[in-house]
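Supplementary notes for students who missed Thursday's class. We covered one full example, reproduced here. Read the sequence, then the structure, then the short commentary at the end.
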Amino acid sequence: MSVNLTLLTVMGALYACGIYLLLERSLTRVLLGLMLLANATNLLILATGGYAGLAPLFSKDTPAGDYSDPLPQALILTSIVISFAVTAFMLGIIYRTWVLARQDEIQDDAEDRRVAETPSFDAEDDAVIPAETSEFPLVSAAGSDDVVLAGARLMPAADAAAEEQPGSQNLDAGPDGGTT
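Structure (token representation):
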């Protein structure tokens, strides 16, 4: 299979222009970029489809290698329908933005700037020792602060608190290998 260099050059130019237009802040340019990307993708599917052959209608006299593959044509048709739907949706968004704001460019709002300036560290989520989130709180046994009832057994409060931490090695193995 030989590759048509002209088709590949046009496809590359369409992809490059489409990606450039997608990075603009104008909704109309974004729409044009999406349309160029859809057309470049159609050319890509057409180029991968191979040579044109006979119609894919069965005949006993024709060998199987002489037929053309109908799958790329079906994929291109599907791509055209999807790109039409995306274009119609974007036109609706562009129209609505023009009616409400009388501008085509997307501006950063105050909330976007605030979110961009906040640090990524969250004191609660990124803490070394996680907060107590157990739904089974530790209960002191008989008014003693040193011993707590954890599960079905009494144990020192420090050991019970250590069991709540990730990677706790505070359990004793029983005779059958489990914990006691």
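Commentary. The first strand starts at residue 139 and ends at 140. The mean pLDDT is 78. If anything here is unclear, bring it to office hours.
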